[in-house]
């Protein structure tokens, strides 16, 4: 297990903004909860919160996020699109387009995995990181609103790095980078690569560049027949693509194409 600290992270950073301010703790209840608290107190764009262990880590839909101490990257970023030093964007980001922040982060992590390990990760709509069809990581984006305006976003990233994911409950269908490679994977190098590649796409997003095409191309979900749990109940059909806001375009058996922005894929399978 490689040791992380605020000092080693700052010394190894390749990014201009993300991670330049950092809070590291050996143990934390939730990096997202801590980052949100700091954001409400004024933490700047790019503030990094990272821990070796979470006692109350969580994923989407309130699910617990379980990882052994020191075996995963567990970090959250405070993002302030209206007040970023990377690009002057006074109007910020429309909260309805906040899924773009998940896109930016998942693509940055995917590129970092490829650079540091040679593994070609895929993405599962809306926020999972896959290796050989098994879950290696996930992203949780939570918003802080000021009326209709996005005051800040907190994007939490959990990635199974140097751990035996086979020890996790079978229903997680989990893997890790070290499981896939059969060797130790250093977390610090991977973290700094992820921050760099997230920052590059975040800067482009602030400048108005679309990220959805690159994200859609990385989605393992496209072309699959899926069962989708939504607020309206279960939907089933073929995942044909995504729209500009990141909604999954689901072709139902009736032939209707239904855009779904919030949902959970229950049972992916071949088309």
How much helical structure, as a percent, in the residues?
25-40%
**Full CATH superfamily name of the largest domain:** Bira Bifunctional Protein, Domain 2
As for the number of domains, it is 2
At the fold tier of CATH, the topology name of the largest domain is: BirA Bifunctional Protein, domain 2
Unreliable stretches: 267-271
* CATH hierarchy class name of the largest domain: Alpha Beta
Rough outline: globular
Number of helices: 6
Give the helices and strands as they follow along the chain.
HEHEEHEEEEHHHEEEEE
Question: How many angstroms does the end-to-end distance come to?
Answer: 41 Å
Give average pLDDT, whole number: 91
Rg of Cα set: 18 Å
The computed structural class is: alpha+beta
Please give the CATH architecture of the largest domain.
2-Layer Sandwich
- Strand arrangement in the largest pleated sheet: 1-2-3-7-6-5-4
The description of the largest β-sheet is: 7 strands, mixed
Q: Tell me what portion of residues adopts beta-strand conformation.
A: 25-35%
